[in-house]
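HUMAN: You are asked to prepare a plain-text protein record giving the amino acid sequence and the backbone structure tokens, both parts labelled.

ASSISTANT:
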Amino acid sequence: MKRGVALVLLVVSLAAPALAADRPLSLTIDGRPVSRTGAVAVLHRHLAYVNLVELVRSYGGIVSVSSGATSVTVRARTATFVPGSAQISLDKEAAEMPGPAYVSGGVLYVPLEFFVTRVAGGTVRIDAAGATARIAVPADGAPAATASP
């Protein structure tokens, strides 16, 4: 009996880190890679998340942090995120994301598809098996990273 319990505990302890690890996703905006240090997008608990600050910068948006909340403004839309919560304020209205914002290594991650479609404007295609995410932005809202001089 003790061997069976020990074996189960060993299997669970070995599997836990693998289940908890985030898997990096290659992220592009209009076909151009978003290349920053570290993973800009990750697969976290079967949902694609993105480094909020890096993506807002790619859109030429504004980020501010106050009292544990992070507010961003992109293309005249403002959203406020709180780590650990799926509830946000979007243009002063309540909205719910498909998963909570979370912090890893001092970086705030939010659900990628929600951010792109509801906050920044655009579409996103996520291929978890291929570890890629592709953002397409309407012509009138091209991110700063893809703007022509």
